[in-house]
Structures are given as structure tokens and as C-alpha cells.
Amino acid sequence: MAFLEIRNATKSYGSVEVLHDIDIAIEEGEFLVLVGPSGCGKSTLLNMIAGLEEITSGEIRIKDIVMNNVHPSKRNIAMVFQSYALYPNMTVAQNITFGLEMHGIPKPKREKALHEVAALLQIEGLLDRKPGQLSGGQRQRVAMGRALVRNPDVFLFDEPLSNLDAKLRVDMRTEIKKLHQNLGTTIVYVTHDQIEALTLSTRIAVMNNGHVQQLGTSQEIYDRPANLFVATFMGSPAMNLIPVTLAADGGKLLARTAADSPTVSLALPDLMRPALEKFIDQSVILGVRPEALTDVDGADQRAPHLERFSSLVLLSEPAGSDTYVTTRIGGVECTARMRADARVTAQASTDFVINMDRVVFFDPATEVRIA
Asked: 344: helix, coil or strand?
């Protein structure tokens, strides 16, 4: 029995179904991130867990109790919104303890909880200020404090960092991660930012068009994307997708590009053969992350299946610790991640290496990963 269960949940507005048979089981202490593009249904699903949206069919259970018809105030859930939703006429202390006061918690207990949370979030010096006197990051800490002080069963975060600037987003992301590690709370977190999803989560649900495309750990989703949507949505820069034809050459299975001259021919690890056997002499899509496509010196020399080829450098972009190089493979522009000191020149040919143990293959007809 999971701590929070979403069973065959659907949501319709009139005849339009926007969430389709969502099945997710969340264990106590997990940090589940719902990630996907705008309009994919992730915030709607979060609001259904909170009780702010009615569920059309299916069940939502918390601690094995069906929540479908339970009022939001009775679900023991705390929500942190994108807009902070602080009362402007109240002090920070009043904002944090207002919910406890409404639930009739005695003042000594409120004060104790307030100071524990303020110390945890390092906002003790802000308790007498009003929201208008705070920065965006400070307001977000207060909104989190208001949720934490209630000691709920589940925390729900709805894009809480999207109003912050880039540096503050990184800082607050670190604070939320620390908070989860220290408290072991159960969190469901909505974002469209795949970096937030990969860094914060214990598991990720990638959503698109009202469906869960893949549910798994950040490593599973990054290394073994279930389909082309997950492959391109998760990761920055995105996974390179190269059309190839599979060919048997003696005892070897090869992936060959057709659009380039000369053709790039890559030998595949033997372990991939069973999954790809039925696609021999057919077109498939080879997926490779930029860090698995690199320069000769930057390649992982311990990897057993490195394939080397030459290709024209179209663009070189120094990025501090790395250099991103654009080349064309199989008629497709691809991004390689090289060392910062990699010596490459635009419009010159250079040697590239692909770590074939880190490539994946997709069926172009179904867009599903096949190996």
C-alpha cells in the first residue's frame, strides 16, 4: 500500500478529457516531480490531489483513505503556490501561523512551531516584516514556512520557483532539496523545468497531452527514455536523434547513416542484438546524449564500445567547463559535448567518438524505445 495513490484518475471538462487514466503510487518520504510542457495536465493533477479540482473518475488515496469527496481543508495537505499567496497586511509571523490559528491551535504551540520553522528556513530576522518588504526568495521561504508549520501528510508545490531569477532559482532549489533530505517529507512538485525535475526528484512523472509518458528515477528517464518525447524533453542540450539503417555484417550488427557522404557506420554492442534483430535492414532512430558524443581525448577510455569517425565541425561554442560542438550526422545537426580545451575549428573536419554503450534506439513508427 502506497502512501499516496492515484488510481485510474481522469479529468474531463464537458466532453473534453484532459487527464487520461493516471496511475501513480507514491511512497512515504518520496519526492515526486510532475514535469511536462504547458497544458500537459500536471497542475490539474496536483489540484485534484489537493481537492481544488474534482476528479471525474478513478480514485485518489492518502494513507489508504479515499479522498475523492473529502474537502481540501480535511486532507492534511499543504500547498506552496507559484504566486506565494501571502496576506499583504500581515507580518511574516502572522502569515506563517494563520492556518494554525484558524484550526484552533493554542498560542504557545503556534509560537513553538513558528520559531522551529523560522530557524529551519533561516528567516528568524524577518518575522516582523510584511510581504512587501521582502525579496522574491524571502517570500518563497515564508510560503514554504506556512506549509511546513502545519506538519501535513503531503506537500504540494506548484511551480514555486518560476517567478525567481535564474541564480535565485538555483539557490532555492538547493534549499528545497536540503529540506526534503532533513525532514523526509512526502512531496509532489510541479514544474516545466526539466533541470528542476532531474535535480530535485526521487522519481519523475513526465507528462504530455494528459498522459504519463514515463515514470521513473531521474537516471532511468535520462539514460533510458521511454519514447521520443521523453528523449527530447528531458536533458539540455537535448538528446541527438539520428536516422540510421540496421545491417548485419558477419557476426556484427551495424547502424549506418544514409544522408551523409561518407556514410558513418557504427558497430553495436552484442547485448543490443536480441532487441534489434527484427529491425535489421530497416530504418530506426539512434539516440545519443551530447556527453556520449565527444572528442577522442574526452571519451571514457574505460568504455568497451567506442566508435570513432570524422565529421565536419559546423559550430563551436565554449561554455566554461565544456565546449559544445555542432556537427552533421545522418543529415541531422547534432551536439557533441567536448572538453573545455578541445581544439576544434569551424568548417574543419575533426574526429568524434560515440560511446555505443550509452546509445538507445527508437521505432520511428511508434516513437517507442526498442533498445
From this structure: coil
Residue with cell 492515484: 6
58 pLDDT above the threshold of 90: yes
Residue 264 is given by DSSP the state: P
Per-domain residue ranges of the chain = 4-233, 240-362
Identify the CA nearest to 108 among candidates 119, 99, 97, 95. 97
Distance in Å from the first CA to the final CA of the chain: 32
Residues 55 and 78: their CA atoms lie apart, in Å, by: 19
Domain topology for 4-233: Rossmann fold (3.40.50)
The three-class DSSP label of residue 237 is coil
As a 3-state breakdown, the chain gives helix, strand, coil percent values, each rounded to 5, of 30, 35, 35
User: Which CATH fold would you assign to the domain 240-362?
Assistant: OB fold (Dihydrolipoamide Acetyltransferase, E2P) (2.40.50)
Average the pLDDT over 295-304 and give the result: 93
Contact criterion met (CB below 8 Å) for 197 and 191: yes
- 3-class DSSP state of 8: strand
Sheet containing strand 332-339, edge to edge, reads: 293-295, 349-355, 306-318, 322-329, 332-339
How many of the other CB atoms lie within 10 Å of CB of 54?
Answer: 10
Q: Is the pLDDT of residue 279 over 90?
A: yes
Helix extents (H) in 184-259: 194-200, 218-223, 228-233
Tell me, yes or no, if the pTM score tops 0.90.
Answer: yes
Q: Give 256's contacts (C-beta < 8 A, 6+ positions apart).
A: 244, 245, 246, 247, 263, 264, 265, 266
By DSSP bridging, strand 306-318 and strand 349-355 are antiparallel
Give the confidence band of 52 by pLDDT, cuts at 50, 70, 90. very high
∠ CA 54-55-61, rounded to 5°:
110
User: DSSP string of 90-120?
Assistant: S-HHHHHHHHHHHTT--HHHHHHHHHHHHHH
The H or E element that residue 363 is part of is none
